[in-house]
Amino acid sequence: MVVRTLNVVYLNHKMQAVLLFALLGLVHAAPLGETAKDDAITGHIKKIDTDLVALNGLLDQYTGGLVAALPIKASAETVETSMKAAVTDIKKEPIPLPDAGLQTMLDAIKTLNGNVNTTMTALGAKAEKFGAAKPIVQKILVRMSDVEKELGDSLVAHASPAMQAAAKEEDQKLRDYFKIALTQYNT
Questions:
Q1: How confident is the model at residue 38 (pLDDT cuts 50, 70, 90)?
Q2: Alpha-carbon torsion 115, 77, 81, 186, what sign?
Q3: What keywords were assigned to this record (predicted)?
Q4: Higher pLDDT, 93 or 24
Q5: In terms of CB atoms within 10 Å, which of 53, 81, 119, 132 comes out highest?
Q6: What is the pTM of this model?
Q7: Is 187 helix (H, G, I), strand (E, B) or coil?
């Protein structure tokens, strides 16, 4: 019985160590269950960032044409799907989220902001090059903007009073980037 208990304790410690290293060694003040959930949400945010990098690469190469816009459409839809996954997981969380977990998410969003800015600037600049695909890109942008609003609203709603200002600030930056791109499609 003692050996079995020690084996379970050893395995639990080993699993915790693997989880912590696998999730970039982030250490939260929350218990392991909350940490895993927080890290999953942060993982979604980082996936959005990775997906944006891929989209930015496609936008850099895009010179015009409907057929050439298809990979951009698919890539943008992948970004949207990743954003929806983050929203879904955040909505499952208790209110408020632990400050340490939320701070990690906000740090990931700060990193994400640079790629969102790059993507929205590129999409705005290439609006006319999309030609016949412009309405399709506009619809995707509107959907992505709506999901971003839902993501931001969820983060703010799940923030403690001490963290709400920081959550609102990061959300507003993202909204502003989408707004700039959308103005190029509403002309």
A1: low
A2: positive
A3: Signal
A4: 93
A5: 119
A6: 0.75
A7: coil
User: Domain for residue 21, yes or no?
Assistant: no
Instruction: Please tell me the distance from the alpha carbon of residue 96 to that of residue 86, in angstroms, as a whole number.
Output: 16
DSSP summary character for residue 31: -
**Is 149 part of any domain?**
yes
140 closest CA partner among 54, 183, 77, 184: 77
Task: Give the pLDDT confidence score for residue 25 in this predicted structure.
Answer: 35
Residue closest to 49 by CA, chosen among 104, 113, 126, 140: 113
Residue 22 in domain: no
DSSP state at residue 1:
-
Decide if 29 contacts 100 (C-beta within 8 A): yes
DSSP of 35-88: HHHHHHHHHHHHHHHHHHHHHHHHHHH--S-HHHHHHHHHHHHHHHHHHHHHHH
Calpha distance 72→58 (Å, rounded): 6
The answer to whether the beta carbons of residues 77 and 142 sit under 8 Å apart is no
Classified as helix, coil or strand, 23 is coil
**18 part of a folded domain:** no
